[in-house]
Design brief:
Chains A, B: Keywords: DNA-binding, Transcription, Transcription regulation. The structure is a homodimer of 121-residue chains. Chain A has five helices and two strands, in the order αααββαα. Chain A has 121 residues and is mainly alpha-helical. Chain A binds a DNA duplex (30 and 30 nucleotides) through α3.
Chain lengths: 121, 121
DNA sequence: TTAGCTGTATTACATATCTATTACACTCAT
DNA sequence: ATGAGTGTAATAGATATGTAATACAGCTAA
């Protein structure tokens, strides 16, 4: 996996895993790959993977069975809410960033439509 | 100014200055505050400001008169193009991030409209 | 019980970022 | 010429991030 510079890798891994869940590629109760496999896949150190997982553990998205592995929570509501939060965060950020560039709320839809039309291919 | 953790401050300052330009608060040919003033304003070290300015210098947005200060380029076209690029980058990122969360291109406008309506107040 | 898989912890090292401090170089108004 | 304002450079120290290597601890299947 290619990581952006200037953003900690462990955060990018966390984001990656969150997206896997949002996309339904990791489902409730499922075991996720071991820290060592993930470290290999992502060409990153075990400790860095570990750090990402710890945070998701704290947030209840994953739970750990020591000696067995990490598993996606079985709390379906939490998963759904998490996905929605991820989407809402993107929307928040988008609206805020555009405002900081002088693009008003009212023109956002128009701007987006134009952009989508022009980048069709 | 409040800075996000996890993103280098000098990048956030650079972004801040770009936005000032996009908003027209810093106009072509104008002198910008001295590195020491900016450092005070932003409660940050002079070196950190310096680092942000160097990059903008390299990109031609600013030019330096040693002993006098830093000035916004007089190249109006470049300024306009820069603003447009900033906006396009936000759109790019938004579309890509939403895709990574499973929100398709076709539904983006609808999702945005709904979001804007619901967050009115 | 043992082998091989899990997660976890610790240590040491390298690099990037940021601060603080000091010094230097240039320009302009006086 | 001098002083006050500019940008620039260099050093030292603190903290965060990431790697590498090693060791430990728990689970499961053979």
């Amino acid at each position: 996996m290619e990581f952006k510079d200037n953003i900690p890798i462990y955060l990018q891994i966390e984001q990656y895993l969150y997206r896997q869940i949002a996309l339904g590629k990791m489902k409730a109760g499922e075991k996720i790959p071991s820290v060592r496999k993930l470290a290999l896949e992502l060409t990153v150190n075990v400790n860095t993977v570990q750090r990402a997982l710890q945070q998701m553990n704290d947030q209840g998205i994953l739970y750990t069975k020591r000696g067995e592995g990490n598993f996606v929570t079985e709390d379906i509501e939490l998963l759904a809410k998490t996905k929605q939060t991820l989407i809402d965060n993107q929307l928040d950020e988008f609206v805020q960033n555009m405002a900081k560039l002088g693009v008003e709320r009212d023109s956002l839809v128009t701007v987006l439509e134009k952009y989508l039309k022009e980048s069709e291919e």
